[in-house]
Each structure stands twice: as structure tokens, then as C-alpha cells.
Design brief:
The protein has four helices and three strands, in the order H-E-E-E-H-H-H. It has 149 residues and is an alpha+beta fold. It binds zinc ion (ZN). The site of zinc ion has 8 residues, from helix 2.
């Protein structure tokens, strides 16, 4: 448990200091703004989707350490994934942070597992899931755009 906690600290500090894919995308296919009033986190998530795959994903904005590092790790995890796999990962991540019960269909979280340390701090859970909800919103908007064209 102590090792996990240490790892958790280290990974979060590293991603907060050096967020990956932290940039505005000029002409994204999908875009959404996320706001967590409980903490003051504000982020934008940008998507480029090609043939149902997340070809590129980036974010910018102002968030606390948990929010920024979670967004950074999310972009790393989702880049190159199919939309379906990305959604499955979001669902599993969300379960891991919010649910007591086990979900046998959940996919392995890999590196994202360190973020499940925030589970014990309900206010922080919102920080850790903000980027994911924003990604989901961007994807839904994009699909909405496609279906109305
Ligand atoms: Zn926050």
C-alpha cells in the first residue's frame, strides 16, 4: 500500500509539472469545455478522430494537480485507441473511482491505476474524472455533428 501511495504521489507530481499533450488544437474534430466548480478546475479537451480512432487528443486550461495529471495521463492512454475502447476505459476508470462494487466487464486501467488513490477523497474524484467527462462530451458532440450532417 505504501509503495502504491508513493508511486501515486510521484506520477501525479510528474504529470502536473510536465503535462503531456498540453496544447490547444487549432482545428479539432471535437472539442468540449469542462468545469469543476467544487475545485475551480477548468479544462478544454480537443480531439482528432480518424476512422473511429483517437488520432490525436490534447487539452489545456487551469486545473489543480489531480485534474491536470489525470488529463495528462488520459491523453496518453487514449491516443491511438478506438472510440469503443476509449469509452470502455472511461467506464472502467469511472467505476474504479466511484463504485464500491466490482464490475467484471471492466478493462484493466494500467498506469491510470495510480489515480484511483483519490477514491477516498470524494471532492478529488471530481478533479480526477473531469478530463474524462470532458472527453466524453467532446466525443458525443462530434457524433452529434456527424449524425446531423
Ligand atoms: Zn481540482
Amino acid at each position: 500500500m505504501d509503495n502504491l501511495r508513493e508511486l501515486y504521489q510521484e506520477v501525479i507530481l510528474d504529470h502536473n509539472k510536465n503535462p503531456r499533450n498540453f496544447r490547444k488544437m487549432e482545428t479539432p474534430d471535437g472539442f468540449a469545455h469542462g468545469n469543476n466548480p467544487l475545485c475551480g478546475d477548468q479544462i478544454d479537451v480537443y480531439l482528432r478522430i480518424t476512422d473511429g480512432m483517437v488520432e490525436d487528443i490534447s487539452f489545456d486550461g487551469n486545473g489543480c494537480a489531480i485534474c491536470t495529471s489525470s488529463a495528462s495521463m488520459m491523453t496518453q492512454a487514449l491516443k491511438g485507441m478506438s472510440e469503443a475502447d476509449a469509452k470502455a476505459l472511461f467506464t472502467s476508470f469511472h467505476h474504479a473511482l466511484t463504485d464500491k462494487e466490482e464490475h467484471p466487464e471492466d478493462v484493466p486501467l494500467g498506469k491510470l491505476k495510480v489515480l484511483t488513490g483519490v477514491k477516498d477523497y470524494p471532492v478529488r474524484v471530481k478533479c480526477a474524472t473531469l478530463a474524462w467527462h470532458t472527453f466524453d462530451a467532446a466525443l458525443k458532440k462530434l457524433q452529434g455533428n456527424i449524425s446531423t450532417e
